Amino acid sequence: MASINTNSLGGMDSGSFGSEPNTSNTQVNSPFELQIFLSEWAAARGQKPELIGNCQTLWELLQTLGFRQRDRLQEILGKLQLTGKGGRDYLRHHDSFHDHLSPTLANFLLLEIALSSREVRNKMSERQRNMEGDELLRYKIEVIRDSFLWLNNIIEKKIDFVKTVFSGFDKDQERLLIVRLACLSRIQVRDFSAGLPGATPLEKEDKSAMESLWKMFDGFFKPVPVRLAFRLASVGVAGGWGGGSDAWSRFLHIFRGLSEDFGRRTM
Fold first, then answer.
1. What is the pLDDT of residue 66?
2. How many structural domains are present in the chain?
């Protein structure tokens, strides 16, 4: 994830972190304010700034949702009830976390909001509410593609990324996923997704592959990082890759890596 430097917090007056965050100003209006909010909350429980973690993706999600209320953030953080020096250990063993996600306050909020909040559920429904036919199919293609981009962003090590994607799959299911992703990588699908003039409508086989991939993300995939990536993509959190050809280039690179890994293991 893109980095916001938390080391600078160490140079601030530690006395300013001795009490609960101020919720009289009802919104967090910048990444820096979000950092300060989490710093105050952590310091009031005897925790160090390092517990906060990278706030960038959390901030992008809050911006997308228009959800920046301090009292809601404090309500979610209240589930942790951190005390003493064991904050990171407590987070590490919290049910929300997965082996490949750092146990930080920023990631805890990110997971709780993305996977459990009504704001995300409402945003997902709102984006699809008036879509149908080709427009809905283009939306699903974009979300599937961006889910892989987000997952690659969340999980830094390639070996962990591959293990997470194929988690719980037998060899036949892995092969089927590769076949469906091969359909997604086709130039016809990419042109259709972009809505280019004269783009050929998708063949029945390609449509079926896209719907199958959507169902996998929308219910079959269980690992927490995959569910997180799908939610971020579904509500339209942009990420650092933009759209169009750059996003597709990144996806094709990811697909080649998955395909090569599967090929090596099934030779």
1. 87
2. 2
